[in-house]
## 1
Amino acid sequence: MLNLNISAIHFNDSEVEIDYHISPQLKEIDSGAPIKLNYAFLVKKDYTWASMVALGSFLPYLVSRDSKIKVTLPIAATEWLKEYWQQYLTAMFESSFSIEWVFTAQYSTEEKEDSLFSSNASNRIGLFYGGGVESTFALSTFYHKNPILISINGKNWMNADKDKSPIKYNLISELTQKYGLSLEEVSMNVRNLIKDTDAIFNRFVTGNLFYFLAAPIADKFGIGTLYLSTELEYALEVGEHDQSIHPRFVNNVFVKKPSWPLFMSIYMGFPKVSMFAKLAKTDFIKYIYSCFNNSQKRWCGACSKCFRISEFCDRIHLDRQIIGMQEGITGRREHSPVTRYSWQYMDKIYGRKYMREFVLLAKHAIKKFKKKFLKINS
Ligand SMILES: [Zn+2]
């Protein structure tokens, strides 16, 4: 049995700190640092919400490791919370599990004036925004409805680590200023607390973080629906990949109480190259940021995203300068069960050019050879 004990929750204006202990200690989970969240405004002291953030961060991951979990929370017994996790985990795991709940009532949950969603929900839209093709495409289709953009960043999280490079955030800030849009940022350290692969993190944690970290923003700005438009090729191709953000699963993530926001996956049937082609007909194309590496360059030129976006430019005859891409990045045909999809789709729409592919292949081979050769000589 694994024990998850949420021992204390501290609200310090715009910062929230959640202390936890997991025993026996798992090597993949940091045992020292608390969960830390930072908002741009004073956060309401809703201890039940903070408990949901902590549970969303750890509970599904722990159930994947052990079928018996004892959870200790510092709030008063909360039936809906237990029901929520029972349903969520049942939807996520085929095998049986059991959760033993202990509520220490260290914090009163009766202080209604401090809880989220105590007033009426509203109908504004929230959009998770990271500057990539999917979220920018979604924005281009309903920016006139004045959505609130929600950007989650954190150490080692996707390509949203501000400390590594500010390029992405400079582009987002330019875009929001130009269109008069509100941007709400949340910083968190959860990716850094679970030292497991991105695949595992996206399978068990990411969707929960999107939803629960957005909750104070939804409450403050009257957001009734949170839209998620994200890359889903992996999720749709490989069984449990990205399960926590899978369109079939986000329905299990949101809290089914009237005042909590809906959480919806949108545009999942749209091939990325089609989104890109549509974006290229708008001003939004200028703000695309899609590189994996958060390097000092907007396009590192060495990751699969850079290769693919470069190929998109060729196929739709878009000048790379418009997206700030330097010359010399060339597409490379991909063959894995997941990534070949992009290429097959491009072939369907734009036709396959064997001669050009051969030249690109040769270019990549020469690059690889030079790299190897230089390395040997260095
Ligand atoms: Zn790159």
## 2
Amino acid sequence: MIKNLSELKYRCKVCGYIYDPDKGDEKRGISSGVQFEDLPDKWRCPVCSYTKSHFYQVKDGYRQEV
Ligand SMILES: [Zn+2]
């Protein structure tokens, strides 16, 4: 079963920053409701500036390598 994507968060495995689609990334013009997968390819971690490929999916404390 695949849960609603809006419940999925992604964590930067470099610095631990979590992208939460319910919050978005205001500082970079990403409004709330934007899914991680819909972020522009040039979006980077606001903390360490690593690319999206350094993020993995987290869900309810369970984490999974992407
Ligand atoms: Zn990071």
